Amino acid sequence: MATQDSGTVAVLAEKPSVARDIARVRGATSTHDRYLHGNGYVVTWAIGHLAALAQPHEIDPAWRQWRRDLLPMLPEYWPLVVYEKTKNQFEVVRKIVSSPRISRVVCATDAGREGELIFRYIYEAAQCEKPFSRLWISSLTPDAIRNGLASPRPGSDYELLADAARGRSGADWLVGMNLSRRIVKKLKLPTAE
């Protein structure tokens, strides 16, 4: 990323193919391992969830044991973790959005609740505080990308969507982690603990 100018825009897509489409439209044709850059843009991708809610034992070591008396597991906070299988791509994204050469970030993950969650978890896990905007398009034609990037929406316009996504994610965690352990204990099934 040594050739970037001050004021460069980082774009985070959800998939490599979408990142390549965006980069092509913006003229970011210099290819590197896990990102493309040029013409004032660095375009990278998430390959899905790079950051996720921690597993129970990562929040409280006692929760490693599948014991009925530890239920329900109700975290006081929701820490995010980056897992080994996605760590390399996360580090690329984190370095890009943390670079002093980057002035702002564009969320170009899929238009919807899950795409918003993917971006927000990465943004938070990377401890990014740079301003971000949202590319919200339903087509990947060059015109749609060009028009969307010409007038991105402020990230704050999507706070309610982000809250809904976080709420769904937390609810999935609470129900999934607690219910699966309760059923395993009730039915006396073996566990992997």
Brief characterization of the structure:
The protein is an alpha/beta fold and 193 residues long.
Describe the 3D structure.
The chain has 193 residues and is of the alpha/beta class. The protein has a single domain, classed as Rossmann fold (3-Layer(aba) Sandwich), CATH 3.40.50. 40% of the residues lie in helices and 18% in strands. The protein is built from six helices and nine strands; from the N terminus they run βαββββαβαβαβαβα. The chain has helices at 16-26, 56-59, 87-98, 113-125, 142-150, 159-187; strands spanning 8-13, 30-32, 35-38, 41-45, 52-53, 80-81, 102-108, 132-134, 153-154. The strands form two sheets. Strands 2-3-4-1-7-8-9 form a seven-stranded mixed beta sheet, with helices on both faces. It has a two-stranded antiparallel sheet with strand order 5-6. A hairpin with a 2-residue loop joins strand 2 (30-32) and strand 3 (35-38). Helix 4 packs across helix 6. The protein is elongated and about 60 Å long. It starts with 7 loop residues before the first strand and ends in a 6-residue tail after the last helix.
Task: Fill in the keyword field for this structure.
193 residues, alpha/beta, Rossmann fold, two-stranded antiparallel ribbon, 6 helices, 9 strands, 40% helix, disordered N terminus
Please render the helix and strand layout as text.
Elements: E1 8-13, H1 16-26, E2 30-32, E3 35-38, E4 41-45, E5 52-53, H2 56-59, E6 80-81, H3 87-98, E7 102-108, H4 113-125, E8 132-134, H5 142-150, E9 153-154, H6 159-187
Helix pairs in contact: 4-6
